[in-house]
Design goal:
heterodimer, A: 544 residues, alpha/beta, TIM Barrel, 8-stranded parallel β-sheet, 21 helices, 8 strands, 48% helix, 7% strand, B: 145 residues, Rossmann fold, 5-stranded parallel β-sheet, globular
């Protein structure tokens, strides 16, 4: 048997970071000559929070091990939640299917085969009640991996159950501009309407549910779409800055909303570069909040970060390699001082996570916590000449790009394709490096296993999904039409007058309007088609 | 049938329905243009009918759809049926994205022979496009031998 020596040995194949920054063989004091300890680093828990948001980091406050669940009908996802809790997951994270995340109803003629794939189908308040049966949303931390409509749905549930919004716990991800960039596009999420809806949501939540956490910006999706760690910071900060400025114009100060914000981030495969990103990000956040928005509260200045390890770094080929990738990315997140981590399952590139893969993702974090000692000491890489130098460079690149985006205006830079072009260029460059072998991904363009069997995939019985869609259609027929139409008419006029759309959205959901009907009405009132696909028209007449 | 043998290969690329992960197909569009293919990129969130209308209007040799959502078999079946109904039985179909190896046989039975799942190479795509344009010039359809 002939064995290529390179297949059984290792060599240095790349001196640039994964995102393309050139590095030196050795770093020393000269590389961070201008760095001032008190001004640029501080102690963990002290401004500018480069070294972490809390003085004793994981000794005082452990990271939250999160596990993402969601597929099929609400009843299917309930089963998944129960199994994740049994396997040791502390936080419940629920992901919705692409249709629900686009606020399209599951009986839409175009999407039938896509219902309940990749997430839970959740088109109405009654479905939310089924999903959360027995879970008190004012006492349980449920994190929603969803943007559109989920906050008004939860708020409607709280009202229906007679609980207080002020007690509401949990989080969602209200970054609508991030959606446009992440592949929803202008058709599903017009940038100006999306941005205004995010501002509406933050204003409403700041005034009514101050304990609810807002995962914004959605830096994770920006990176998955395609950009560098520095660009994640730049685009994310541009979105945050515009949002905070618009909130200030409505009389909501940074100190009223920033303590509820958490940055949704990723950890890709380049451990040192990702650690540098988390550190640079906290520094930029603290300085921006203090100097641009005059924030006084320490809770506004100390950024909380929720991290999901990188899905796009995982390979379909030889998928068990993804266990190694996800473990290193999880370590990067912990060395970077994040507050919550979801470790990708190794089968994420193949299918909805299997129960076994989900359990292994939980075990990965337990090994890091108990055996590796990742929780022991705050900012363990702080003071490394290499990591401090990388932190400075990520910060500088991020601030340069942020200035460019803000010169255009972030909403316009989304509308005119500036940011999309940047992401397409990044992806093309990466692809070309894979083609030339300049960049190696094991099992993908080198060390490709011969005759490998295709990985098996998780499957589930579609019967419940089909029954769920039938039930959805029947429930719609049995509604109090008068109350429904009145509530949607109110919503239409509120949205037409550019009032905060959230109170009327909540009322409409309580009148059993579906997610698609509520958002379709908001779209109409803003001059867009009721149906983003242009196939169905509004069954309601709002003018009479 | 193709009107001009020497004309460049024309390919419509896009996504259907609720699917949102467009990185792969957008990158492919640019790489195919680098190789001299005329790519008409119609973006995400298309209807089957809209895509077939574009295919007819643009006189393409191939319609390519990228899928992330596991519901791709039903969507591909609908696309093929609509192409046939529009009299475009000579236009070849290719699919890519998260296509699982277990589904290749069923796609093939639909007349979809260009299946470019994870790990596919752009050279393979270009070779398929050339073959597809050739079949169209000969007046052979998707399903004929």
């Amino acid at each position: 048997m002939n064995v290529d020596p390179e297949d059984v040995s290792v060599r240095l194949s790349r001196t640039r970071t994964w995102s393309g920054m050139e590095t030196d063989a050795v770093y020393g004091p000269d590389d961070i000559a201008g760095l001032d300890h008190d001004r640029d680093l501080g102690r963990p828990g002290e401004y500018p929070f480069t070294r972490g948001s809390y003085p004793e980091m994981y000794r005082s406050r452990m990271w939250t091990l999160r596990n993402i669940v969601g597929y099929g009908a609400p009843e299917d996802t309930r089963d998944g939640i129960r199994r994740a809790l049994e396997a040791g997951s502390a936080g419940i994270n629920i992901v919705l299917d692409a249709i629900s995340q686009e606020a399209v109803d599951p009986d839409h003629p175009l999407v039938e085969a896509q219902v309940g794939q990749e997430g839970c189908s959740l088109p109405s308040l009654r479905d939310l009640e089924r999903l959360l049966d027995g879970i008190d949303v004012t006492a349980t931390d449920v994190a929603w991996h969803s943007t559109m409509m989920i906050y008004p749905m939860i708020a409607a549930l709280v009202r229906k159950q007679g609980r207080r919004l002020a007690d509401l716990q949990g989080s969602h991800m209200p970054d609508h501009l991030g959606l446009t960039l992440a592949g929803w596009g202008e058709a599903i999420m017009p940038p100006e309407l999306g941005h205004r809806t995010a501002v509406d949501c933050l204003e409403f939540s700041a005034r009514h549910s101050p304990r609810w956490a807002l995962g914004m910006p959605q830096g994770y999706d920006l990176r998955e779409r395609g950009c560098t760690p520095a660009a994640e910071i730049a685009i994310g900060m541009a979105i945050v800055n515009q949002t905070l400025a618009d909130l200030a114009a409505r009389g909501v100060s940074a100190d009223e909303v920033a303590p509820s914000l958490a940055w949704v981030s990723t950890a890709d495969i380049d451990l040192f570069e990702e650690v540098a990103k988390f550190r640079a990000l906290r520094r930029i956040w603290a300085r921006t909040l203090r100097h641009r928005f005059d924030a006084q509260s320490p809770r506004s200045l100390q950024l909380r970060i929720a991290c999901h390890t990188s899905g796009r770094s995982l390979a379909y080929q030889q998928p068990l390699n993804n266990l190694t990738r996800a473990a290193i990315e999880t370590l990067a997140a912990l060395l970077g001082g994040v507050q919550a981590v979801e470790t990708c399952t190794y089968d994420e590139p193949i299918c909805i996570p299997s129960h076994e893969a989900r359990e292994l993702a939980i075990r990965t974090q337990q090994i890091l916590a108990h055996e590796v000692g990742a929780a022991r000491t705050a900012d363990p890489l702080g003071g490394s000449w290499y990591v401090e130098s990388l932190t400075n460079r990520v910060e500088r690149d991020a601030l340069d790009l942020l200035a460019t985006i803000e010169e255009i205006g972030v909403v316009k830079a989304v509308q005119d394709g500036t940011i999309e072009q940047l992401m397409d260029d990044y992806n093309l460059g990466l692809r070309r490096e894979l083609d030339t072998g300049e960049r190696i991904v094991v099992g993908v363009n080198r060390f490709v296993p011969e005759g490998a069997e295709p990985p098996t995939r998780f499957t589930f019985d579609r019967g419940r999904v089909e029954a769920h869609v039938r039930r959805f259609v029947e429930t719609k027929r049995a509604r109090d039409q008068q109350r429904l139409e009145a509530s949607l008419r109110d919503l239409y006029h509120a949205a037409r007058q550019r009032r905060n759309s959230h109170p009327a959205m909540i009322d409409a959901l309580l009148a059993d309007a579906t997610m698609g009907e509520v958002w379709g009405t908001v779209r109409l009132a803003n001059g867009y088609s009721y149906d983003p696909f242009g196939v169905i028209t509004s069954p309601f007449d709002h003018e009479s | 049938m193709r009107s001009d043998l020497a004309a460049p290969i024309r390919c419509l690329l896009g996504m259907l329905g609720a699917d949102v992960h467009s990185n792969g197909v957008r990158t492919l569009a640019r790489r195919l243009r680098d190789r001299g293919i005329e790519v008409i990129y119609v973006g995400e969130h298309n209807t089957v009918r809209g895509m077939v209308e574009s295919a007819a209007a643009e006189d393409v040799d191939v319609v390519g759809v990228s899928f992330w959502n596991p519901g791709y078999l039903a969507a591909t079946k609908a696309l093929v049926a609509e192409l046939d109904a529009a009299g475009l039985a000579d236009v070849m179909v290719m699919v890519g994205g998260l296509i699982h190896a277990d589904d290749v046989a069923e796609l093939s039975a639909l007349g979809v022979h260009g299946v470019f799942g994870p790990g596919s190479d752009v050279d393979e795509v270009v070779a398929f496009l050339a073959e597809a344009a050739g079949r169209r010039s000969d007046g052979r359809g998707r399903t004929s031998a």
